[in-house]
Amino acid sequence: MDLQLIFNVPNIIDYLRIILLFFGITQPDNIFSVSYIISSSLDFFDGHAARAFNQCSVLGGCLDMIIDRISTVIIGLRMLKKNIEYYRFVSFYILIDLLSHFVHFTVSCMTMSHHKNNTNVIMQIYYNKFVLFPICLLSEAFFISAIVLEKKHRVVNLLQIVCWLKTFFHIVQLLSAIMTMSDIKMKLN
Asked: What is the pTM of this model?
């Protein structure tokens, strides 16, 4: 067991994200939203800290991806608590998000490649920081807006379009990962 790795700077940031999520789920909408926004914002810093301190690790990559997926489920559930009419959309969004990321992450582990290294042109566009950051930010804004604003607010409807775009990229990611996985020749027994 490597305690220095377990408690390195980027992993501590991820543990803080988990604590904020635990805290937020028991709070009213406004405090939940602030807690969630801080947790999501810290996602931006864990990767930068890992590279800055030369602390990139498999554990850190796993924590980051899993916390991102858990965050998606938590924000989706919180939104449904207030706006059940989004049930189909949120269910589809979470299903594609979880499926695409877990299959893609599995392929990345099997091929020992970084999850953002992708030969698919569409995924290269998505992982460009000038595309990925605004899409992620606006997707998070959709969920927060749906929680704190009135039902069917125009802003919520506009931001939902970005979530559909993100889902499109996740479908491409899933298909790309499935195609890559089908080319891997190895025995599992």
From this structure: 0.89
